[in-house]
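General statements about sequence and structure are easier to judge against a single worked case. When preparing material for the folding task, we compiled for one chain both its residues and its backbone structure tokens. The amino acid sequence and the backbone structure tokens for this protein are reproduced below:
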Amino acid sequence: MVHELAAYERAPDECHLTADQLTAALFGPAPALYGHVAVDDRDEPVGFALWFLNFSTWAGVHGIHLEDLYVRPKARGTGAGRLLLATLAAICVERGYRRLEWSMIDWNPAAGFYAAIGAEQLGEWIPYRLSGDALRQLARRAHAPTHPAA
């Protein structure tokens, strides 16, 4: 379904996740990724949520960052997405986490759904990403000798 999500987001060639990678991330010796799967009345998977913990230094507690939420087209409008988000909200409340956060591609029609459940768009926060050559170039500086400014 992750590959289905990538196709939905118009980026199928950017998704390189393998079943082995996902299995290791979810079930390896030190899992850093958590997931939930929504199923229909025949036990067929219709959606998923993949998430990890974040931490608020200001609040001093963890929260959940929802990395991916996807519901297959045939199951949209059935409540599967709401149930997945409600499950994560319940985890937050039960564990004392202060927030559940995610990013959404700007053209996604789910914005109305998110607003309807009370989610707020964080307009003052701008996402940044470092990847590819820029990531490798900066990483090389971690091992470069430092010289104080003259």
Q: What stands out?
A: The beta strands are 34-39, 45-56, 61-71, 100-102. The mean pLDDT is 94. The helical segments are 2-8, 19-27, 80-95, 111-116, 132-141.
